[in-house]
Fold this sequence. Notes:
Helices cover 33% and strands 21% of the residues. By secondary structure, it is of the alpha/beta class. The chain has a 6-stranded parallel sheet with strand order 3-2-1-4-5-6. Strand 5, helix 4 and strand 6 (163-165) form a beta-alpha-beta unit. It is globular and about 40 Å long.
Amino acid sequence: MTEKRVVMVIDMQNGVFETPRHEREKCVSRINQLTHAADTVIFIQHTEAGGLEEGSEGFSLLPELSQPEGALYVTKTACDAFYGTTLEALLREQGIREFVICGCATDYCVDATFKNGISRGYHITVAQDAHTTSNRPAAEAKILISHYNDVWRDFIAPANPPAVKLTETILENWKAN
């Protein structure tokens, strides 16, 4: 049986992008390429007081982000999309054990969800050019993105090694299967 082509898109929301993010347009374009080619798309949305309340404009996904018919949605309150959410139950219901992860912010929610997902046994591929963050006091966004791609590429999980690939490579692999 062929695995479903699944994309998990994290926190690509209006309120999150009130802080400028590195190469927003390129990141959104690549995410849209992935969501158009996927069998299943899961949008993760962060909610909290101060502009990200459910139903608010800040909570809404970016207008330029494609939301395919049948997309699934999970709301979270922590960086980790598994923490206190319905994500694991949703993945189980859908029979999903493998997915591509992308979105924002590289160094917070993408990283936390990646690490918890690997620990839970999910086979995760990071779209290395489809996640973004903002400049931080310790490092510019471009450096953080590169750094986290390296960390994830070298992440030690002997029975469940993750992958870090360009969007173009992921799409080519999907076409071949």
